[in-house]
Design brief:
By secondary structure, the chain is α/β, with parallel strands linked by helices. About 40% of the residues lie in helices and about 25% in strands. The protein contains seven helices and ten strands. Strands 3-2-1-4-5 form a five-stranded mixed sheet, sandwiched between helices. A five-stranded mixed sheet has the order 8-7-6-9-10. Helix 3 packs across helix 7. It starts with a strand and ends with a helix.
């Protein structure tokens, strides 16, 4: 059994893969101080509660928070007796090497999304991930990551607006009933929602113009469903794209 771990800036997702499907998925807040022992107690308790009795013997990790990787390595070594694959680190090969400027550091999540999207949809893609940051990843026709765009995340923008303006409250993102808000909350929701609709549409159009190929636009991330149903921006939505990408990279390394 494979334990796939996706550690993002806000949350960390643990999924158990049996070779054909994910049999369980859990989410925890990302905290770099959490020890390997704490991870194991939390994980084993959840497995017991859901009566999942399996032998985990392989681990793959993608982490945008470097300080977390050490304790996840210890978790794999101490409790599962295996050396984990860590995306973006030596010892973990990619199906297709990225083509970017020499010396550029690429977020592991973007490499994993690229692998997952190419496996499901082929090449010539724009992958839009609504996470802490809103990222746009360009996938070439052979599956290589060839660059992209990074914009502030939706919730990050709302939080910045609230923190910088004393009179503006904290609000949750949702689709407003009308563009013109008639109260402060509705005005803020409209600005953020329609602002991001415009941001995604404009960036995707400009990427397509530079790339000079027909491209599919794939959405993923926690807030993707909100935008997926609200405008004809995307060709497909993938709720487990990152986890799927981890299984693709794991299989590629296993077959080497």
């Amino acid at each position: 059994m494979l334990l796939a771990i996706d550690c993002g800036n806000t949350n960390t997702v643990f999924s158990i893969w049996d070779g054909t499907q994910f049999i369980a998925t859990w989410r925890a807040s990302t905290e770099w101080q959490r020890t390997a022992d704490q991870y194991y107690v939390w994980l084993s308790t959840l497995m017991s509660l859901e009566r999942i009795d399996v032998q985990i013997d392989e681990v793959i990790v993608s982490s945008t928070v470097p300080r977390v990787v050490f304790n996840l390595r210890v978790l794999a070594d101490r409790y599962f007796n295996t050396r984990p694959l860590v995306v973006g680190r030596p010892g973990c090969a990619l199906p297709v090497e990225p083509r970017v400027d020499t010396g550029t550091s690429i977020g592991p999540d973007r490499l994993v999304n690229t692998a997952g999207a190419f496996d499901r949809h082929g090449g010539n893609l724009i992958v839009v991930d609504f996470g802490t940051a809103t990222t746009f990843d360009v996938v070439a026709n052979d599956g290589a990551y060839v660059g992209g765009v990074i914009a502030p995340g939706v919730n990050l923008s709302l939080e910045a607006l609230h923190n910088a303006a004393a009179a503006l409250p904290h609000v949750d993102i949702s689709k407003p009933q009308a563009v013109i808000g008639t109260n402060t909350v509705a005005c803020m929701q409209s600005g953020v929602f329609w602002g991001y609709i415009g941001l995604v549409r404009e960036i995707c159009d400009r990427i397509k113009g530079e790339y000079a190929h027909d491209m599919q636009v794939i959405s993923t991330g926690g807030l993707a469903p909100l935008f997926q149903q609200s405008a004809a921006l995307f060709d497909a939505f993938e709720d487990d794209l990152t986890m799927h990408g981890l299984t693709v990279i794991h299989k590629y390394n296993k077959d080497l």
